Each structure stands twice: as structure tokens, then as C-alpha cells.
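Fold this sequence, please.
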Amino acid sequence: MLFLYTVLVVCEAVLLIAGIVEQRRHQTNLDMIPTRVLVNGIRGKSSITRLCAGALRGGGLTTVAKTTGTAARFIHPDATEEPVYRKFGIANVVEQIGIVRRAAAYNPQALVIECMAVMPALQEINQSKLIRSTIGVLCNVREDHLAEMGPTLDDVARSLCRSMPENGICVTAEQDRFDILQEEADARNCQLIYADPKTVSDEELRGFSWFTFKENVAIALTVAELVGVDRETALKGMYDAPPDPGVLSVERYATEDGKKLRFANVFAANDPESTLMNINQLLDLGAIHRPLNVVINCRPDRVERNGQMGEIIPDLDPEQVFVIGHPAKSAIDAIPAEYRGRAVDLGGDRRDPEEFMAELLGRLGPDSSLVAIGNIHGQGELLLEHLAELPADDSADEVPAAAAAPSAPAADERHVEHVDTMQLYAPRLDPYQRYPEAYESRYAPQAQVPHQRTSEQPYDQGSREPWPGVTPTPESAPVVPTPAAPQPRGLFEPRVPPAPPADDSQQGQNPGEQHR
């Protein structure tokens, strides 16, 4: 018995020593990276991570990044990337230690990394032990992961705040729960900065060859300014940054039996609010059209989300709802009774993909749209693979007879331009125009710009200095953006834009900062 106790004590001592050595090595690696940006939130983390990394690369900073979303990627300083290897395909926050070690090998000036923790306690460990970020990003608070961080959105907001750096800076574009974020930031002596999406012009958004939101761009520009990269240089770097594999996209296919299909991949927006916003935008822009069909991919570890996707079916009013993955019942039962007859169960996750794809395409009309929602993993990935094998539809759009026939001018006649799907997503083209009336009524402003509490040492963006540890080049000296005159909103305006301030000269200032 004494021998067993001795072996136990020796093993525990060895593990303790190994843990101390690993912790010190990890801390040494962190110290080699002066600027560490941790991106947290519910929606858009991967895109913001890539935008921030691109902005810092554009400023001449050696920058390493890592995303976790649709496909985990390690992004090298030259913007090349590779998948993150995971043993048995299981994600674990401990992998951040290896990411930091690989990043430190480049002797970088900045590391931009996406938070991969969901449990509140793990989010705090990810910040306090694994990353120790100098700049935090909390992009938004949405209805997702309620079982772990909920049950209310206020609880989700407080859980996300656990990733805020103590005695540091946190950047956010969240409006509705800004007061909660401010309260949590004050408790951590963290300076909370609101990234106003209205400071991003339509002209600046036109430079992107992929779909993104002004909130994401505003956050990346604020982070770049904090480390001394000027706005123009940061934007150029963001334009050149490769998009995330899960970025919103629309493809046009031709099936074997001659049908036309417009397919929208909305898997990345896997909370109800973001899903509805993206689909309604695509409908209003003409990128997809009715008859609309929806495919919901279910996962056994996301039963609550499966039900949320079923609950929004009345808002989408599709012709058919295809359910793939497992358990399909979790999504079908959540669909209201009057719409449940439109649901088609394609057989769960054990059915051969060739079979359920043949049945899905066979049920579509001659010219229809298909929107994929829920979660991409599992049969969602198989769906994308099989659709990618279809030939592209390069035929011109047919103009409806009602639109082709001239009619008598009305008193409030409006000229509506046709928006072609392929032109909408072609690189560097200008798809922007005035909003359709349906879009204006749906996304009318409803919220005010959040006001930040005045602290004893207010943060003055006009005298912002580079973050400690980063020496900016002359080309990357921080500049204060000049307030621009109000411009007509572009097509990719956020759903609930903040109300304009009373004085245009306050554009670019921190909310709540006294105007001088």
C-alpha cells in the first residue's frame, strides 16, 4: 500500500511540475506577441477576425490569425492559411496553447484570434489564462447557445463579457445591451469603445468582393486605429483579406432535368434574427426570389437551434421546407401547425446523400430559390458538396411580363432597377442603389445610439496613441476620420442602424464623450 501511495505522489508531482513548465512557456510565448486581439460574440466572429487581421497586415504589422467558425483556420502572416488539426475532430480550448506557440514562432507584432469557448467559465479561462488579450472585441449579443449562456439575452451578454481584458480595451458594435456591457467593463476597469457602423460609408463598403456588414468593418477599423494603422491603409488590407468559407453567398445552378436554381448559403447566420435579416435582404435585393424553398440541417447537439429554425418558417413563408440531419423531429415539431404540411423529412442523417439530393431537387419547381439554414456541419456539408457538382446557370434572367409592358405613370411612380445575382457578388462591381420600399419599411430605424458613461478618464479618440508594444510606421500613423456629410444608405445597411447624432461633428467620437 505504501508503494502505491508513493507512486501516486510521484505522478502528481510530475504532473504539477509539467503544468508549471507548460504555463511558463506559454506565458513566454504570449509575451513575444505585444498586441493580442480576442474576438468574441455570437455572430460574425470569423469575419471580424479576418477583417482585423487584414487591416493590421495592411498596416505593415506581422500578423497571425486563427478562426474557429465554419472551418477552423490558421492564417499565416502572408495571408495563406491551413486547416487547424484536431485529434478525433473534437474542438477543445486547449488547442489555443498550440496556436499561440505556432504564432510566436513568427515573432509577430499582433495575434488576432477567435474565441472558441461557449461555457462562461471557459470563456474566462480562455481570456485570463490562454490568450490574455490586450484588445477585446465583443461584436454582438444574439439569441444562440442559450442552454450554456442563457436563458435570457441579458445573461448571454454578461457571459460574453467574461472575455473582456482587465485594465484593457474592448470594442463592440452591440447597441441594445450596451449598458450591460458598460457595467461589466467598469467592473473590470476595461475601456469600452462603441464602433459606430454609420462611420463606414457605402463607398468604403463597395470595395469588398464578398458580403459583409458595416458593424464588422467598423470594429476592424477601430481595432486598426488602436494599434496605429490609418483608415485608408486598414481598408486596403481588409479588401485583400480572403473571406471566411462560411460567408453569405448566392449561387445559380442548372439541374440535370433543366431546372434553374438559386441557392443561398445562410448556414453561418445560425440564430433566428440573423437568419431572417439575411434572407429578407437577399429577397429585397433580387438575389433570390419566390417561389422560395428552405432546407433546415439539424444536429443532435443543437436541438434548441433546430427548433428556432422551425419557428421562423412563418416569417419566411416558403413553398416547401426540407429537413435533413438528425433529429428532424426537433425542427418539424417547432413549425406552426398551419405550415407543418409544407415540411418534407428527407430521412435523417443516415440516408444516402445521393438519394435525399435527388428527392430534394425533384420536388423543386422549374425556376426557384433554395435557402439553407441551421448549421453547416454534418449533412449540410454534404448538401453543399453535391450542389457544387451541378453546372452553373449562366442564362439571362427572364423579365416578368408585367415589368416588360409599359404602364401609365402613377403619381408616386418609382423606377426600380433590376439586380442580377451574378453581378451582385462579382468582385469589385457596384451593386448599390436606393433601398426598395419593402426594405425601407422592414428595417426602419428603431434604436438610438448607445451612450457610454462618462468615466474619470474619458477615452479621446482624437488623441489616440498606438497600443503599447507596437511602433507604427510613418504610413500607419493614426488619423482621425473626417466627418462626412450624410449619404443615402447602401444595400448592405444593418437592420437596425443607430440614429444619427444631433451634431455631425461628433461622428467618430466615443458615445457619451463630451463634444469640444
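The chain has 20 helices and 14 strands. The first strand starts at residue 35 and ends at 40.
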